[in-house]
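Researcher: We're teaching a course module on how sequence relates to structure. For the next exercise, students receive a sequence and then see the predicted structure as tokens, so they can try to spot secondary structure elements on their own. Here is the exercise chain.
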Amino acid sequence: MDEQSQFKSAQSFLADLTFERYFFNKVEFTHNEYFKGDPVTIDFVFSHHISLNEDQNNAFVSLSCTVFPEAKIKGYPFTLNVEMVGAFSYDPTIPQELRDSLVSENALAIMFPYMRSMISSVTASAGIPPLVLPAINISKYIANQNSPTESVTTEDENK
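Model: And here is the predicted structure for the students to work with:
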């Protein structure tokens, strides 16, 4: 196979969704001074929101995680709130139904390891044993959520 054919073959495996960048817009750690040191089971809650800009063929995905919510009430050692945003672009030729599932499932699957890493880093830096969230099944998470995909179409000011 010549170099040109190999390049064309490799391009067929490129994703229709591109992860452009990400940032954390909230990292909030609150130590529970009343924690008694009893063993606890990891308790965490995720939420997400997807905004599509169809004119620009991009999506912004917000992923939030709260670890040990209501720490003082439930006797947890701390509460950690983390919010991140990922920016993605997508191929404008893919059908809307495929695009929506591609963005929701793949974007969250791409972002989740960054969220897990931040949570581990923050807990390690807080002087406690690092907390590593377990892997989650993104498809099952999506199936159990009612978080809508919001499409945004902007008006061209030059019209």
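Model: If you want an answer key for the exercise: The longest helix spans residues 96-125. Confidence is low (pLDDT under 50) at residues 5-13, 147-159.
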